[in-house]
TrEMBL record:
GO terms for molecular function: metalloaminopeptidase activity; peptide binding; zinc ion binding. Residues 1-23 form the signal peptide. This is M1 family metallopeptidase. It comes from the Bacteria. Residues 369-570 form the Peptidase M1 membrane alanine aminopeptidase domain. InterPro entries: Peptidase_M1_aminopeptidases (IPR050344), Peptidase_M1_dom (IPR014782), Peptidase_M4/M1_CTD_sf (IPR027268). CDD domains: M1_APN_like (cd09604). The keyword Cell membrane does not apply. Keywords: Signal. Coiled coil: none annotated.
Length: 780
């Protein structure tokens, strides 16, 4: 018997062994469509001289620039904003421009606004007067009132207003490399953002009859003209945010003399607008290790009662920003500290502005959270380049360069819940983080909300986890998106959906892309590769206009990981992750020389398994009985399957030539497990397998998503283990957003529902099921 024959015998014995775990019928091979692992191709834009195939800006990349000189005044008696601006527009494109497009975003509040008319509405049997009143047209007088548009010489320019866009027609085309200077005078009625909604406006405090003004989207500003879409003049309807041009700003803000103003940029005249004591505190804050109050709570309370009738002008300048916003009120506390480390060579000022209601929370946390955010985001993207970063408490969340509006107020007794505290910290991190996406990495929010909200929410998650151990992050971990992804298909849209057309806006534009990036970092790419590529994207596109294709290509270019299958599934589709472990069969070798006897018998019996041999054998037995009984006795005692000495020598020779690992196989010390999986959700992902052994230990195998490339529906995989397996679980740490964990284990393990878990918790605590599980301890 030859060496190769023994190898054949071993293989035969292995396949013929009984299953260790109760086996089902093996899966059918199914069909393969191949689409999920094809390259993105026409789904993304082609590379060109402006944007390379690597995802970097091309050799001929260009972008426009717009500088602003603005004088603006708040009429605190009538809630009016009056402004005059001079815009210098630089045409860096290769195209002559015969007209310019500007945005008049505040026209979303106008009486004839399109967004007031295009949404569905319905009636219920029970409705309040306030709800019904929203259906009654009213003339409120909101929107931008354009008073004058002239060129640098004062000559009137023709213009056309279309809802939230304004076109200025040029007498002669603006040539490539040239600039055009024009002036606009305008005013607008400031809206009550608390009652009427919107991202900016005023909040009125009846108890002290004062206003908090958060002024944004307030001036006519240039639309983006780009290489990939020309003019971005899609209307602003209140959801899809902004596509904006970088430029330099100088803004003179005139307000009541007792107002405090916080703004994009750096104030140029603190010496004129602050008291000597406040100015001294400002200088002291440059070296303080803790947030220092520039305007104190006591000073704010005094100002709230006096209400000055005189005015002051605060002058702010900002370089290379895409927008400008500010806050103004007499009821503001202002604190500040310098971020002395963590931002490489920059030491920006972290600052907060907040009213008395927010003092218990903001004085303790806000500015420190701002500083923390700058440090963490700088680590994962680029060092924060601006001189300041501001958090304003304004009962809502919205972001602008160097300044953002957040929420977080205590109750009337100065107490607050843990939920309020963590909600405030989370929103501050998120809105301050927007300084990086999209204020620096300047994507088009009107078209691709996920490029700023999703990327920012992902880094927010990293910053939250670094703020505090076990921080209760709402978004980021994979399992938190599973409930959204298991919704019916008619309630889902791809991430690559225009902002205006998304039904489940928060899950789609914030949570799902953030989760996808976290999965890329933790499971698909690994932290080192992901972090390098993500940082490279931020470096390449800082102060530029990236598109999704630039992001997708850069992440692959800088990591050498083919991710087209991932973008295709997570960003262009609505499939969910549901990988089922359907079947497990185990095989173990139990081979020794004596087993050849059994093997020979099996082969002989198999060879007898035909009608001719069966009949011949029967005839042979009859012959022996008829002729000689002694021959029959000899025949019955003879073992035709007995191992011969020669076979024993051949086996010993064969065994001696085996490697130590091959001897483990032959000796039955290695068990082979054949696992069968089906892709029930449609979204291909890596298969993460946890092996739980009889001795109490565990081991995890990571099977790359490429296992699905030849069959996207069903796959099998064999594993060799030296320990006896007790049970197997896939995705044990909930890394892939699997929507059905009941088919993730073998043998099957029942998963309790949330309601059942709640009942168990109540039983453990000795409380009734009707008790309120959401009670929160009050914190001072």
């Amino acid at each position: 018997m030859s060496y190769s024959f023994f190898r054949y015998i071993i293989t035969f014995c292995l396949v013929g062994s009984a299953g260790f775990i109760n086996a089902q019928t093996p899966l059918n091979s199914g069909s393969n469509h191949g689409n999920k692992f094809e390259q993105l191709g026409t789904l993304i834009t082609d590379p060109n001289i402006f944007r390379t195939a690597s995802g970097a800006p091309g050799s001929m990349y260009w972008q426009q620039k717009a500088d602003y000189l603005i004088d603006v005044e708040i009429d605190d008696e009538n809630q009016l904003l009056k402004g005059s601006e001079t815009v210098t527009y630089f045409n860096n494109s290769p195209d002559p421009l015969s007209y310019l497009w500007l945005q008049l975003d505040d026209n979303e509040h106008a009486d004839n606004a399109e967004n007031m008319r295009f949404d569905e509405s319905s009636l219920r049997t029970k409705m309040s007067v306030e709800e019904l009143n929203k259906f009654v047209p009213a003339e409120k007088g909101y929107g931008v009132n354009i008073k004058k548009v002239v060129d640098a010489s004062g000559k009137a320019l023709l213009y056309t207003i279309n809802y939230t866009m304004m076109r200025i027609d040029l007498a002669t085309p603006l040539k490539p490399g040239a600039k055009f200077v024009f002036k606009i005078d305008w005013d607008l009625k400031i809206n009550n953002r608390i009652k009427e909604g919107g991202r900016a406006g005023y909040e009125y405090f009846a108890k002290d009859a004062n206003y908090l003004y958060t002024i944004a989207q307030w001036y006519p500003r240039m639309a983006v003209y780009s290489d990939f879409q020309g003019w971005q003049n899609k209307q602003f309807t209140g959801r899809g945010e902004f596509a904006l041009v970088f430029g330099d700003y100088k803004v003179n803000i005139t307000v009541p003399a007792d107002h405090v103003v916080g703004s994009t940029g750096e104030c140029q005249n603190y010496g004129e607008v602050l008291s000597p004591q406040q100015l001294a505190r400002w200088k002291q804050s440059q070296v303080a290790d803790e947030p220092l109050e520039i305007v104190t709570l006591e000073e704010a309370k005094v100002a709230m009662t006096k209400k000055s009738k005189t005015k002051k002008t605060w002058t702010y300048e900002a370089k290379n920003v895409r927008d400008f916003a500010f806050v103004s009120s007499r009821r503001l506390v202002w604190d500040a500290m310098k971020v002395k480390e963590g931002v490489e060579n920059n030491q920006p000022m972290a600052m907060s502005y907040y009213g008395p209601e927010a003092y218990p929370l903001y004085r303790r946390y806000s500015t420190k959270v701002v500083a923390h955010t700058l440090k963490v985001y700088s680590k994962y993207t680029i060092p924060y380049p601006y001189p300041v970063a501001i958090s304003v408490e304004a009962a809502n969340g919205m972001e602008y360069p160097m300044i953002c509006f957040n929420y977080g107020r205590a109750d009337e007794y100065g107490t607050y819940s843990e939920a309020t505290k963590y909600g405030m910290i989370g929103v501050i991190i998120h809105e301050v983080g927007h300084n990086f996406f999209p204020m620096i990495v300047n994507s088009d929010e009107r078209q691709w909300t996920w490029m700023d909200e999703g990327l920012n929410t992902f880094v927010q998650y990293l910053a939250e986890q670094e703020w505090e151990k076990d921080y209760p992050s709402r978004r980021g971990p994979a399992h938190k998106i599973a409930d959204y992804m298991k919704l019916p298909k008619d309630q889902l849209e791809p991430i690559m959906t225009n902002s205006e057309n998304i039904v489940q806006f928060g899950p789609n534009a914030y949570a799902k892309p953030a989760t996808a990036l976290n999965i890329l970092r933790e499971t698909v790419m690994g932290r080192d590769l992901f972090d390098f590529a993500f940082k490279e994207y931020a470096k390449r596109w800082a102060f530029k206009h990236p598109t999704p294709a630039d992001f997708f290509r850069t992440m692959e270019d800088a990591s050498a990981v083919d991710l087209d299958w991932f973008w295709r599934g997570w960003f262009f589709g609505t499939d969910a992750v549901d990988i089922s472990l359907d079947n497990v069969v185990s095989y173990r070798m139990n081979f020794h020389p004596e087993s050849l006897q059994q093997q020979n018998k099996l082969e002989y019996e198999e060879d007898l398994n035909n009608i001719s041999r069966q009949r011949n054998l029967a005839q042979h037995m009859e012959y022996l009985v008829d002729k000689d009984t002694s021959l029959l006795d000899f025949y019955n005692k003879w073992d035709r399957f007995e191992v011969t000495p020669k076979q024993k020598r051949e086996f010993d020779d064969f065994y001696s030539k085996l490697s130590s690992q091959e001897k483990e196989i032959v000796d039955g010390k290695i068990t082979f497990y054949e696992l069968s999986f089906s892709n029930k959700g449609g979204l291909v992902m890596p298969i993460l397998i946890e092996w739980n052994y009889e001795d109490g230990t565990k081991e995890i195998d990571n099977v790359p998503a490429y296992i699905w490339r030849k069959n996207e529906n069903q796959v099998q995989k064999v594993f060799a283990k030296r320990k006896d397996v007790k049970f197997i679980r896939i995705d044990p740490y909930r890394e892939t957003a699997d929507i059905d964990e009941n088919n993730n284990a073998w043998p099957r393990q029942y998963q309790s529902s949330n309601f059942e878990l709640f009942r168990q918790q109540q039983s453990t605590r000795g409380e009734s099921v009707g008790a309120n599980p959401m009670r929160e301890a009050q914190t001072r």
